[in-house]
Amino acid sequence: MHIPENYLNGATCGVMFAAMAPVWVHAVRSVKRNVPKAKIPMLGVGAAFSFVAMMFNVPLPGGTTGHAVGGTLIAVLLGPDAACLAVSIALLIQALLFGDGGVLAYGANCFNMAFVLPYMGYAVYQFLRKHIHAKSGRYAAAGIGSYAGINAAAFCAAVEFGIQPYISHDSAGNPLNCPYGLNISIPAMMAGHLTVFGAVEVIYTVAMLAFIARTSSDLLPENTMPATEAGRHGKLFALLAVLICLVPLGLIATGTAWGEWGSDEIAEVTGFSPANLINGWELRALLPDYSFGGLPDAVGYILSAVIGVALCIIVFTLISRRMRDKTEYGPRTA
Hints:
The protein is mainly α and 334 residues long. The chain has 12 helices and 2 strands; from the N terminus they run ααββαααααααααα. The chain has a single domain, classed as Arp2/3 complex 21 kDa subunit ARPC3 (Orthogonal Bundle), CATH 1.10.1760.20. Helices cover 61% and strands 2% of the residues. The two termini are 29 Å apart.
């Protein structure tokens, strides 16, 4: 679901950045107002789990792949505004360091995965929590919410891809950016997300929520303990370490996620390469495709996960140190 560089024209990138700007401003203000200073580092942990989840590529027949995001999980635990910031930071690190998602397309990727996904997922979760009173209601609501969130995000990405041939083409009608219209982009994106990738998001969200409920219950939204009394999270960090060690499993999936092909791969299918995919601007990533020169792919993937996770946690830890303590706060309703 990461939109690469030059798949969207400049106008689309600008509009998506403009759309995200007020969302980020609102999210920052909301988190400063509602999330205790001691819990801000947990946004970094949430961002880290999202970062790692996106490294586990799952294959589909035909050579395409996809992944979970975990945005609804963070929204359930800390609120959708916190989830927006956490996923935005994870996406920024991916784009700048690893070339996963375009820098110019950063606004669009955040709109899809850091805005639409967690806010939609959380809205569905909140609605179902009021109507499902069974003991397992939290997990059912979170699972359905995460499924709705990732599919809404995929639909938005499909539309952003699909409108490009109509708004960005040369005098002969040849697409300059993404060459696939809505009649192709929507079915192609939604087929995988309505089935396999949606299921992966549900499993990841519910399994993580159940693990947190058993080992770090102070992170649940109904918790009323002051942050200074909150439990330690050693088991949660241990799970994160295990997932980092397992990320090479994401290399097993062959192929590339739909819409993330290079110009040469598109040429093999369409017979031509859009001009902006060949000549457009692209940041030279420090560790492209999560690789380290000269090291085996699995080792590079693990080291990339370590770096990404560490940066996610460091960013929010530094933010928390600049914040004032909140002496009083109430729990969010679940």
